[in-house]
Amino acid sequence: MKSWYILLFTLASFSLLVIIILSLLTPQIESRLKDNVTAAFIENDLNWVNVLVEGRKIILKGQAPTDWLRIKAKKLASNVSGVAVIDSQITIANPLQPYILTAAYDGKQLSIEGYTLNQQSRLHINNSVIDVYGKNNVTSEWQFREGQPSAWAMVTSGVISTLKILKHGKAVFKNQTIKLSGVAPSAKLKTQIDKQLSPYSNQGYVIQADIKVITPAISCQKKFENLLQREQILFAQGGSTIDLNSYPLLERLKLVMDKCEQFGIIISGHTDSKGEEKTNQSLSLNRANAVSSYLIKQGANTNRISTIGYGELNPIADNEVEEGRAKNRRIEFTIEGI
What we know:
Blueprint: H1 2-43, E1 50-54, E2 57-61, E3 63-64, H2 67-78, E4 85-88, E5 91-92, E6 100-105, E7 110-116, H3 119-133, E8 138-144, H4 152-162, E9 168-174, E10 177-184, H5 187-197, E11 206-213, H6 216-230, H7 247-259, E12 265-270, H8 277-297, E13 305-311, H9 322-328, E14 330-335
Parallel strand pairs: 2-4, 3-5, 7-8, 10-11, 12-13
Antiparallel strand pairs: 1-2, 6-7, 6-9, 9-10, 12-14
Helix pairs in contact: 3-4, 6-7
């Protein structure tokens, strides 16, 4: 009988010892868990989360900027070693903020960033635009959030696909308002975009399109400018004899003229400010005429070409330094009417 009392006393003593040890260790365990969870949030820029610990239970509080970040916070906490239970009491800050998506196309690459409801909606949009642009030409960054507008995946993927028609463009979706901007290669393609966008108005969306058209005249002007920005037509020093090294450039300019045969071309000469103003004006005109004569000999229509000499009147760089003077000694091609 005595041995039973001894055994009971031993068990009671051991239990009491365990309770005492646990009471001493629990604050240390809680502190370590809190530090580890908090460190995980700081590392992932979730500093707005407040962490409370009850044993191995983690209580999360705070206001998440988006539902996606609220879910991310809970997942991060659950991945911390030693955590048994997660009680997420995080709310969404500004739940009525606009539902936004932005898509930008630079002529090669498409980038998408914004909200969608879930993985299914994300996949619908991504797969639709990848079919149009190609997998390697699409980058996207998504946040999942409640409150997705009606037909969001269908409308956004459809509108984003129309950007491919543009030279470059951008679509901004804010709730059910769509702002589309960009540059169309022709008026015909702009009309095509308008037709493709019209069905989305029936889905309750308001479309605000600002599409500019590249006219043939502007396109031709750009081609002239691109050639002459990379290379200048050179002449004998102080004279109007064309340097032989400039003949290849003149041939390329002639090819542009042939492709833009519906437009008149103004060839203008410019000099630096060294020398007499009257002499410079005469030199610039003679150089413009020399270029015109060469092109006409190569088959250019004389009725399409006019020349003018500006002398030193229109500098594009500093005439006080040689580098600037070299830039000011130039020939320019301008489409009439631009």
